[in-house]
Design goal:
- It is globular, with a radius of gyration of 23 Å.
- Helices cover 33% and strands 21% of the residues.
- The model has no long low-confidence stretch (mean pLDDT 85).
- Helix 12 links the parallel strand 13 and strand 14.
- It folds into three domains: 34 residues, no CATH class; 74 residues, Archaeosine Trna-guanine Transglycosylase, Chain: A, domain 4, CATH 2.30.130; 221 residues, P-loop containing nucleotide triphosphate hydrolases (Rossmann fold, 3-Layer(aba) Sandwich).
- Helix 5 runs parallel beside helix 6, helix 9 packs across helix 10 and helix 12 crosses helix 13.
- Strands 4-9-8-7-3-5-6 form a seven-stranded mixed β-sheet. Strands 12-11-13-14-10-15 form a six-stranded parallel β-sheet, sandwiched between helices. A two-stranded parallel ribbon has the order 1-2.
- It has 353 residues and is an alpha/beta fold.
Length: 353
């Protein structure tokens, strides 16, 4: 059609707008200008936001920081030449504070209402799990905060950075191990493009249909429920019974994304794993469905897109990260490659491949 219009009506400025990359390639071969939709794209500057920053603090203010926090105006950064520059932060951004008399003296904090406050949950051990790096300290702070304070957490990071593992550990701590009544249950979803479209035609119940997608959740639960690395898997039957009990008591529920989108969910710890495979409209519909006292955790890696017509700049996870930045109700954290906690082989492969 575009080629016909261009030839028959001699239109010079005709542009084909489509999310289909194959269609855009075909258009280029036919000398037709083709573009992706720009309204849902994020910029490279938005992609660079990690949810954390570094700043310097005068040593004399460290005691004040530990007691009641410190004003952002008392912190500063340094440029490449060592000159002081003003610190620019976003609400709920995490901060690594360095003493001005020695960079080995560091503190961790979070921006809140014009101040940098010390981490409130730094010494907590959800389900007996301890943070192993700075990123996990920030992640734990975001996840442990009550839904009344931080109802949305967005976590980006490559495989092996414990995104799903830590999110499940905090959920189990609050709902199962040490219940406080904060949440009634944990719901876990893992979007998959083909699966979401075809679920009605697959045999079995809803749980049987989504079981293959939830296997990574089971893998993480095995490690959380049996935290002894040396004796883990010695009694597979007992471990399997523990996991089955959690699902039978509906402490953790697994649901298809298709059915979550039409509900209003209250007092729920909702984990959306592999959120990079969601469209912006899907993310919007999920977040706007959050009821009272519900906490939503979006997890994913924008560099691992499995869904057609989505990429690093147009997926739902990146879209949510862009527009929820600086929201007083959202915490974001991007976990780096050097915070991967998988095997030595996995770390070596990350550096080599």
């Amino acid at each position: 059609m575009c080629k016909g219009l261009k030839e028959e009506q001699n239109i010079d400025t005709l542009i084909l707008v489509t999310k289909d990359i194959v269609m855009r390639l075909k258009a280029q071969l036919l000398a037709i200008t083709a573009e992706d939709f720009s309204t849902e794209q994020i910029s490279e500057l938005d992609q660079e936001y990690t949810g954390r920053t570094e700043a310097y603090i005068q040593d004399k203010y460290i005691k004040d920081f530990k007691k009641q926090g410190i004003s952002i105006k008392k912190l500063y950064c340094c440029d490449a030449d060592g000159n002081r520059t003003e610190l620019h932060t976003f609400e709920n951004e995490f901060v690594l504070l360095k003493s001005d008399i020695g960079t080995k003296k560091t503190l961790l904090g979070k921006v809140r209402h014009g101040k940098v406050l010390p981490l409130e949950y730094k010494k907590k051990k959800p389900y007996d799990i301890s943070p192993k790096n700075m990123g996990q300290y920030f992640l734990q702070e975001a996840l442990m905060a009550p839904a009344s304070e931080i109802p949305l957490v967005i976590v980006q990071g490559m495989a092996g950075t414990a995104k799903t593992f830590y999110s499940l550990a905090v959920g189990l701590e609050k709902v199962y191990n040490n219940p406080t009544g904060e949440y009634r249950r944990i719901i876990v979803c893992r979007p998959n493009a083909q699966f979401d479209d075809d679920i009605g035609f697959l045999p079995g119940t809803e749980q049987e249909k989504i079981a293959p997608l939830m296997r990574p959740i089971i893998d993480n639960l095995e490690q959380i429920l049996d935290s002894d690395d040396e004796k883990r898997y010695e009694d597979d039957a007992q471990l399997s019974d523990k996991i089955q009990e959690i699902f039978e008591r509906e402490i953790i529920q697994t649901e298809a994304l298709t059915y979550i989108r039409g509900r209003s969910i209250a007092k729920t710890y909702l984990i959306i794993d592999e959120a990079q495979n969601m469209t912006p409209n899907q993310v919007k519909s999920i977040i706007t469905r959050a009821g009272k006292d519900t906490k939503i955790i979006l997890l994913g890696d924008p560099h691992q897109i499995d869904r057609p017509f989505l990429d690093e700049k147009t997926n739902g996870l990146s879209y949510a990260a862009k527009y929820m930045k600086d929201s007083p109700y959202c915490c974001q954290i991007m976990l780096s490659a050097d915070e991967c906690e998988r095997s030595v082989l996995a770390m070596d492969a990350i550096n080599r491949l």
